[in-house]
Amino acid sequence: MDWSALDYSMAPHGYRELRTNQACVELPGMVYFVLAGRDHREWLQGQATNDVRQLEHMPWLDFCLTKPSGQLTAVCRAWKSGADTIIATQQPLVLEERAKDTVFIEDVSLSRAKEDYVCVQGIEAKRVEGSLFSDRTGSGGVERVPGAHHLPDAISRDAYLLATLEAGIPLFGTDTGDKTLPPELGPHFESNHVSYTKGCYTGQEVLMRMHSRGHTNKTWVGLRANAPISPGARVSYEGKDVGTVHRAALSPAFGHIASATLRNEATTEGTRVQAGDTAAEVVTMPFLRQTLP
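Above: the chain's sequence. Below: its structure in token form.
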């Protein structure tokens, strides 16, 4: 996609810089942890929905923490840091409680990082000493300790929310609820956060049963329309109520877009639905479908 050719006149503050250059992104409530100890990888493997062994050859690893019944309680990102692992999450108390409840005689320690990290996103975001590769907006980027390096300007919250919506990144607590199961957040999220070949972890039995069955009952999807879509609007398909709109925005690339959780009979790409008073088309997340930097 040629980001430089788009009309940004209606875009939120900082969005253009994010998509064409680089910008700082504030991640409210994000806490960074250092997970250490001889047994810490084995312990994390028994908690995370994804295969921690992939950290040996990946720049980062996304995973969830779930209840024994499979419901989502935290979304995390991990990086290998020498013999330790760095974990970032906006649900820090969930991770701390999990460690408190499940670490007994193992050599495992979880502590909040002493360094303050900043998130720099965009195609021009540079890796400097202390950086962790991290894409949180669909344009690539890093998370790093500021140090003496110059930081670009920060974008607005609206620009960040628009970018995550385009990139198919659910907003915890808005696009998710107390009963959300990771596979319900769609194949893009599921493939990046859940492994079905790694073995046991908390919630694995329920998620594996769903995977074996082949589908969920509902899925988080995108909506695209020619007019604004109202957050909270009920969505109907063939005269039946099939779900709810979570959030919406005006995208320079895709026009009026939104996220919604719908029953699966209405989640096929291109399905025409009614979102409140607005006719819309279903889009499989993410809106951005390209090789990211």
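The two ends are 12 Å apart (CA to CA).
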